[in-house]
Specification:
CATH topology of the largest domain: Rossmann fold
CATH class of the largest domain: Alpha Beta
Largest sheet: 7 strands, parallel
Structural class: alpha/beta
Strand order of the largest sheet: 3-2-1-4-5-6-7
Helix content: 40-55%
CATH architecture of the largest domain: 3-Layer(aba) Sandwich
Distance between the termini: 47 Å
Order of helices and strands: EHEHEHHEHEHHHEEHEHEHEHEHEHE
Low-confidence stretches: 1-8, 146-156
Radius of gyration: 20 Å
Number of strands: 13
Strand content: 15-25%
Oligomer: single chain
Mean pLDDT: 87
Number of helices: 14
């Protein structure tokens, strides 16, 4: 399926996370005419994400894709070096696949490409916010990004905002943009082709998993992103572990070690997965009850585990968990994550 990248592929994918890379492979599984694409992994500077990306790259290569590793975050000139390294691909690309339309690095790359059809693949629940901002005509910005007046005056921030504005203009149909969306999220977007992700590749990769009569708790990085207070979160985790007698805590790849150490002292096995949880869950074994805070997995695991005895339960975030100045926007977003999953998959929601 792969082709020689030096010839300049007509399809280029830009990904920054294991889930984005997984969903690019899912897209090609769904639409084989995209086969032979070049996948550029734009690596983070440090952390467990790099390890998960390496493991996910191996699976993508087994699926027949050419995958290359780039380092756009190792200093001030690293983005420019990455763009130069991708010069051949960018000069010939006809279809561009991106995993995170909010990424500053990806926005820079989009801004220097010629006109191309752009397909956005799921980067989790951020897809919901992308659609909301797109419909509202807003500038593309992460839902948990905080900006104070002093921050807004920073030259780097202003430059990033200008690039984001230019990218939105380029992707708009009124400016000749050709935009598609590949997602498992319950969204519709006027004038944009929405392709449904049913995780056909992941489900074909592994047979139905063994389901054990236990409970698992899926963690979140809301503390690390500054949305939720650490002490409140830890008390909530302890309460849920006791209520469901959970055996395992699946850590988010961005969770801090200090927090995971405290959770391990609660008597639960803390699991740092080397691949996206969707693949781990399909491979199994998986608990009969999977409790998760509002996050991507309340939308993906019901699809991945469909037809099995496992069920997903959403643990809602109480209002007093939120950090100061984040509660209104965060609560609106996370409530939307929960309500859409409940409506689409009939999930139960419980207080944390």
């Amino acid at each position: 399926m792969s082709r020689n990248p030096s010839s300049g592929p007509s399809v280029l994918a830009l990904v920054e996370s294991p889930a984005q890379l997984m969903n690019v492979v899912e897209l090609v599984h769904h639409a084989p005419d995209l086969g032979g694409l070049h996948i550029a992994v734009l690596a983070p500077a440090a952390g467990p994400t790099r390890l998960q990306l390496r493991a996910m790259m191996a699976l993508a290569r087994q699926a027949g894709h050419h995958v290359a590793w780039y380092e756009p975050r190792l200093g001030g000139a690293s983005v420019a070096r990455t763009v130069r390294a991708l010069a051949v691909e960018l000069s010939t690309v006809e279809r561009l696949i991106v995993g995170d339309p909010f990424s500053g690095v990806i926005q820079v790359i989009i801004s220097v490409t010629r006109d191309a059809e752009v397909t956005i693949v799921d980067d989790g629940t951020a897809t919901l916010e992308f659609v909301r901002q797109w419909v509202a005509g807003e500038q593309l910005s992460r839902w948990h990004r905080l900006a104070t007046p002093s921050q807004r005056r920073q030259i780097a921030t202003l430059a990033r905002d200008q690039i984001a504005s230019n990218v939105r203009r380029r992707l708009s149909p009124e400016h000749g943009g050709r935009l598609r969306l590949f997602t498992c999220m319950p969204v519709d977007l006027a004038g944009v082709e929405v392709i449904r992700n049913d995780f056909g590749w992941v489900r074909a990769l592994h047979p139905a998993p063994e389901v054990t009569p236990t409970a698992d708790l899926v963690g979140t990085s809301l503390v690390e992103s500054g949305v939720v207070q650490g002490e409140r979160y830890l008390l909530g985790v302890e309460s849920l572990l006791a209520r469901y007698a959970a055996n395992r805590y699946f850590a988010h790849r961005k969770e801090a070690e200090w927090k995971l150490d405290l959770i391990a002292r609660m008597g639960v096995e803390v699991v740092r997965t080397h691949l996206p949880l969707e693949i781990i869950a399909r491979r199994g074994p998986m608990a009969r009850t999977v409790v998760s805070f509002p996050s991507t997995v309340v939308h993906t695991l019901p699809v991945v585990l469909a037809g099995t005895a496992a069920r997903v339960v959403v643990a809602e975030i109480p209002g007093d968990w939120y950090a100061p100045d984040t509660n209104l926007r965060a609560d609106a977003f996370l409530s939307r994550v929960t309500s859409t999953a409940q409506h689409r998959y009939g999930l139960s929601a419980v207080a944390s």
